[in-house]
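User: Quick sanity check before I run a bigger batch. Here is a single chain. Can you write out its predicted 3D structure?
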Amino acid sequence: MKLNFIERLITGNPVRSLVQRRVEGSWLKRMGTRSVYPLCLEIGCGGGTGAAVIARRFGAERVVAIDIDPRQIERARRSMDRDLEGRVAFRVGDAMAIDEPSGKFDAVFSFGVLHHMEDWRKAVREAARVLKSGGEFFFEEPQRPFLRNVFVRLCTRHPAGGEFDFEEFKAGLEENQIETSRVRRLGRICVFGVGRKAERHAPDARGGGQR
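Assistant: Done. Predicted structure follows.
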């Protein structure tokens, strides 16, 4: 779902960008289990701040950043730091139908994007699909009570399919084999953290097969 005018102002303002760079990125990195994540995907990249955070703070050699709105992609390309050119690729894309192979990425990021989805479960399922075995899904998302606040509903528009509470979100991750031991919530406002996709182990060559 594309953002309206007010939402573009909110997500594109310098304060939001500063918080994303200095606070959110730091919190999420400390919750991860690896020092670097070489190949990453960001869904709903907006103006490109998140992609820069991923490249710098998470040690990504390559970041694929998608957004359903071509205007946001153009904006992100124009504003990207020159020293990150060649490391970040911005593309028009749908988080509910990611045009990437399964098991490709070391990490997938959603900086406040899932609540804009017509069906957040589809986006989670797609994120899990494109993650490598043992890959990590980083996120920070508002919960249903916050989205239904009178002021929030007056200024923004969000599909009902993007709403969830803490327990629903954890269940959605677990249904897609993403563990939830590092998922946290800030009251009834938001849920944030990192989930790790279950590792698939190859059959034991010494005992595999029928006997």
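The beta strands are 39-43, 62-67, 88-92, 105-111, 131-142, 183-186, 190-196.

User: Great, the batch can go ahead then.
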